[in-house]
Design goal:
The chain contains two helices and 26 strands. It is mostly beta strands. It has a single domain, classed as Beta-galactosidase, Chain A, domain 5 (Distorted Sandwich). An eight-stranded antiparallel sheet has the order 9-10-11-12-26-22-21-15. The protein has a seven-stranded antiparallel sheet with strand order 6-14-24-23-20-16-17, with no helix packed on it. A five-stranded antiparallel sheet has the order 1-2-3-4-5, with no helix packed on it. A hairpin with a 6-residue loop joins β23 and β24. The radius of gyration is 19 Å and the shape is globular. About 40% of the residues are buried.
């Protein structure tokens, strides 16, 4: 297998690209080392949400994430929602909106067929690093390491904030043993109270309508909603089946370190976009204090490391058919 890495430009920003014959991935070292573009080359399909305009909408550290470019895939760490740390010795310290690292410049270097990115904490003592490479022509691997530089345990959320383009009829597939989801957010629909639990894959909503969570409805639905799979994932993967384009996008992750999954279908209800957010994550409910309350927080021990990976894999149509049998 051959891959190549090279310097490039994304809009008006410096970028670095890594690609094989099947996939082209473009990262922005000075903007959170984000995955800005992911193209499946055989059908020339951009998998990640792109925004119009020639200039990237920058935000400062501790800025408003949604007011910025809000596209592609960012690392959310050590929170998603803005909140204040409750943990000694950092009580009362603000945890920035969508975390610290998405707005920071990361160190980077090209090492053969691998990319390296690293960043240090601003308000908290940590080092977050990731190594990017292809394990097959169709699989992009991101290996992560979080280092706690303090003598105190640190609770955190890491989530892959992936804004993924979809077609009408795209289907979400989860492991067979997933049975319930927990509602956290909605625009335009009626999912009842925060924390309501619904069966997977089909549920009756408070307004009496039935929803099949596997099926992404049309953009004219004008709704957006978020839920977490209830409890730990039984297996570390989720899949989007692009039936018309005859391929499948698969996220894989180690459930002993990344045990949870958040999902946000945006069926035209938010910013007139049609996409889905897939968020493999180390902790639930978008913030460490809420996750701690639910017993679903992740912790990096004092002077220790926490390691995980995310694989982004594309399967061609014949493999989709086999997986469905």
């Amino acid at each position: 297998m051959e891959s190549k890495t090279y310097s490039s430009t994304y809009k008006d920003q410096p970028a670095v690209t890594i690609e094989t014959e099947s996939i082209r991935a473009q990262f922005l070292p000075t903007i959170g080392a984000k995955l800005a573009s992911l193209v499946y080359k055989p059908v020339d399909y951009e998998l990640l949400v792109q925004r119009p305009g020639e200039n990237y909408l920058l935000q400062p550290f501790d800025g408003d994430y949604v007011a910025g470019e809000c596209s592609g895939m960012d690392d959310m760490f050590p929170t998603i929602d803005l909140c204040y740390c409750e943990q000694h010795p950092w009580e009362g310290i603000k945890m920035a909106d969508h975390g610290e690292v998405w707005s920071l410049p990361w160190e980077h270097k090209v090492d053969g067929e691998q990319l390296y990115f690293g960043v240090s904490g601003v308000r908290f003592p940590y080092r977050l690093e990731k190594w990017i490479s292809f394990t097959t022509p169709d699989t992009l691997r991101m290996n992560y390491q979080l280092t706690n530089l303090s003598p105190f345990d640190f609770d955190f959320v890491w989530a892959a904030h992936a804004m993924i383009n979809i077609d009408e009829g795209t289907e979400l597939v989860l492991p067979e043993d997933v049975s319930e989801v927990v509602h956290t957010f909605c625009i335009g629909g009626d999912f009842g109270k925060y924390g309501n639990i619904y069966p997977w894959p089909e549920a009756v909503l408070p307004d009496g309508n039935t929803i099949d969570f596997r099926k992404i409805r049309s953009k004219s639905t004008m709704e957006a909603y978020k839920y977490y799979i209830k409890g730990r994932m039984p297996e570390g993967w989720c899949r989007l089946k692009y039936k018309e384009r005859d391929f499948s996008l698969v996220f894989s992750f180690p459930i002993e370190k990344v045990p949870y999954l958040g999902i946000l279908p945006n069926e035209g209800g938010w910013q007139d976009l049609y996409n889905i957010f897939l968020e493999p994550c180390t902790a639930t409910f978008d913030r460490p204090d809420a996750a701690r309350y639910r017993g679903e927080v992740s912790t990096v021990k004092a002077n220790s490391t926490y390691q995980w990976y995310l694989d982004i894999h594309i399967e061609k149509g014949d493999l989709i058919k086999q997986a469905s049998e």
